[in-house]
């Protein structure tokens, strides 16, 4: 038996940003975004349509860190009247920050307690409603019920997960992604590709997640090389944002797996962008799962063709063409360190979702 559920109301299309005012509908809202001029301009437009937000949090940095989140949550408690709604306009870091702020309702302490107790008590959190407006085509956070919280000082990564953290609305306007520079476009798209594949070699895979994952991966493999050469093509931007959302709908029900589990120490130690860290291992993971599970093989064959060894080689070539080496050493990770990362990753929460084995992965070390 299997189940699939996703409660997020999705609005997709060029100009969808203009509908935000109607969705906010006069409620007291707070805005989470970045401080760059581009986002200040979006905030100004939003203010014109919906009135001024009661609070703006715009000091979001890539990979939200627990220390910053504690300060940002505190600012909500200083308001005379709390917000009724959190609107996030930005990439995964902004949307995840908004989720934490929504769950904290002014007090980070209870959220931190949930994080360090591996999710215990998450169902007692009562998050404010969230509207998520992604400006990168990658994380799928606009349709998932979790947020990644980084603890740079402690060298750890946590996940805050609760059903009520699903945004109420996801507003996807591909024109907002037109300003993404090449490196960001590539790394975020590879994050989405990783989400799709990770939902396939996953113990929680089901026929609906597989449909979304296959559609997303095929589209990303086709669109990304062209998009990386023509960043201002609106049709390609739209296809990429839709594919990233499909990946989100796939892994919203499976969570990620081993490639993500192996990526976290790489990002924490070497600052590697999330999308690169969770995708340079995809060919080696693909090689390691061939023949393990017939449904997994069938889904992968719909993406890469029936010869999956050849498919893995093509995936490696695809990444290398985009400037992403598939060798851990080229990301600063030595052979012994890589072995240790693999051994720890299979024991992690995401690693446990993986249908393959430690031995299969270690056999890929050259
Ligand atoms: N919750 C989830 O389901 C989920 C899934 C995957 C990743 N994540 C998390 O998301 C984070 C990564 O998010 P991300 O990859 O979207 O990037 P990001 O939000 O970290 O942003 C990276 C940079 O991109 C810039 N940027 C964003 N949109 C832009 C645009 N339209 N034009 C120009 N610049 C723009 C930002 O200013 C920022 O400097 C990581 O912390 C990761 O752990 C969460
Ligand atoms: Fe990811």
- CATH level-four homologous superfamily name of the largest domain: Dehydroquinate synthase-like - alpha domain
User: Would you list the SSEs in sequence order as H and E?
Assistant: EHEHEHEHHEEEEHHHHHHHHHH
- Got a strand count? 8
Number of helices: 15
Describe the largest sheet: 6 strands, parallel
Number of domains in the coordinates? 2
Do you know the CATH topology of the largest domain? Dehydroquinate synthase-like, alpha domain
Instruction: For the record, give the distance between the C-alpha atoms at the N and C termini, rounded to a whole number.
Output: 39 Å
Low-confidence stretches: none
Tell me the Rg in angstroms: 20 Å
Instruction: Please state the overall shape, judged from the principal axes of the Cα atoms.
Output: globular
What is the CATH class of the largest domain? Mainly Alpha
Mean pLDDT: 97
Q: Which class do the helix and strand fractions yield? A: alpha/beta
Hetero groups:
nicotinamide-adenine-dinucleotide, fe (ii) ion
Order of strands in the sheet with the most strands?
A: 1-8-5-4-2-3
Roughly how much helix do the residues carry, as a percent range?
40-55%
Strand content: 5-15%
